[in-house]
Amino acid sequence: MKFSHLLFLIVAHEVCAGSLEVTVQDGKGGPVADAVVYAIGSTRAAPAKQAVIDQRDKQFVPYVTALQVGTSVLFPNSDNIRHHVYSFSPAKKFELPLYSGVPAAPVTFDREGFVTLGCNIHDWMVAYVAVLPTPYFQVTGKDGRVTLRDLPAGAYTVQVWQPSLKGSPDKFAQHIDLAGTKELSFTLDLKPDFRVQRTPALSSGGYR
Amino acid sequence: MGAVWHQYSGFNQISGGGSVLLRYRFGLGRNAPWISLENRIGYSAFEEDFRNGWDEAAHVRGGFSFNDRVRVEGGYTYENSCTRDEDVWSWCAHHGDVALIVDLTSHLQVSLGYGYRDGDVVSYAVPPRPDIRAIAKQIEDGNTTFDGPPRNAYKLNGQTHAVSIFANYALTKYLAIRAGYEYRATSHDPLDYQNHLVTAKLAFSY
Fold it and tell me: Taking CB atoms and an 8 Å limit, are A194 and B30 in contact across chains?
């Protein structure tokens, strides 16, 4: 291979593959976990074949799932008791009545939006699904950081959503022109984190 | 006139039993209204063993939520406790209650409650007490001892109004600490009694 051809290939790779290093923090500068960071560009790709949201030790695992619109999700029940999964969210309303093991059919999330999952038996069980119009997304860990890799060069709108977010992700959107590696930071306005506890409660009506 | 005992160990008891509970939710989600039916049967063994006997309690409860943090629930209970001789120590009662429960934070829950009870109460008094004897359903003469002279036990029908406040704090995923105060006022004309009850407990579930 001639040297000029090799140089072209190296340059072409540099132009086509960029990455975004994103930090998400709250108003006090602390890291925000379970935040979905996603970059919307002009690229459209086929969604991943399937995602999995498990039920283990009477909890949904993971707490926050990000996926591209059109992805199917399997809801295996790894517990030795039955669960009843449901969602009222406009982006996906569905119900998996009391079951154990693996349901026969996965649930396809075919509309963009943010979906809240619950279990009708165990009130503390909650999880979220971010259904996104892009294949470029990650969910932050405890350090509040993610890296979106292999993004084609071009213009992107980068947004962040978190279950406790006040307002819409549009409010915090950043528009970038990506070539190479770029660093972004988001400071989110969050509501106090209120989650139903699993411990015995004063109410006798729910499974708590 | 009332009297105060510093400690009375005759009521120390060990109880065991079982219950069956059926709960139905009208719809999906933790804010959906619900109703439950429960029947509990057990046996209580007291330090003063003439109090020993079988207990049964049947409950109907229901509730609904205003929003994610505030809910109301209430119910009716019929209780029946029966000693071997079906004597003054046997009792039965009807009880209704309602409570407002608020989740202040993810960990802290408080409730304000009101209860009404109509049923048997046992009153202890040093004889002669012709005023109590006249309204008593059953009497046990001098068979109970406290610090001091022997007292008669008089079984009466009494009406009780109770108000309570409780707090429940989640320590871990499975363990909560619960504390509360209840004030009870029981009456059967011309008698009336007040109780101040303070409760503290650890609750565990898996």
Answer: no
Question: How deeply is A19 buried, as exposed, middle or buried, from its count of CB atoms within 10 A (0-12, 13-18, 19+)?
Answer: middle
Q: How far apart are CA A93 and CA A109, in angstroms?
A: 10
As given in the structure block, the two tokens for residue B57 are 């309690």
Cα distance from B63 to chain A (closest Cα, Å)?
Answer: 7
- CB count within 10 Å of CB A142 equals 9
**Region label for A161, one of left (φ > 0), alpha (ψ between -120 and 50) or beta (otherwise):** beta
DSSP letter for each residue of B142-155 = EEE--SSS-EEEEE
* 3-class secondary structure, A152: coil
Q: Is the ipTM of this complex over 0.85?
A: no
Name the minimum distance, in Å, from the CA of B162 to any CA of chain A.
Answer: 17
Residues in chain B within 8 Å Cβ distance of A205: 23, 34, 36, 61-63, 71, 73
CA dist list (Å): A17 to A40, A147, A182, B183: 15, 13, 12, 71
Encode pLDDT of A81-120 as tens digits. Answer: 999 999 999 999 999 999 999 887 999 999 999 999 999 9
Report how far residue A132's alpha carbon sits from residue A161's, in angstroms, rounded to the nearest whole number. Answer: 11
pTM: 0.82
Residue found by looking up tokens 């075919």 in the block: A110
- Closest by alpha carbon to A140, among A52, A20, A22? A22
Phi, psi angle pair for B132, to nearest 5°: -80, -40
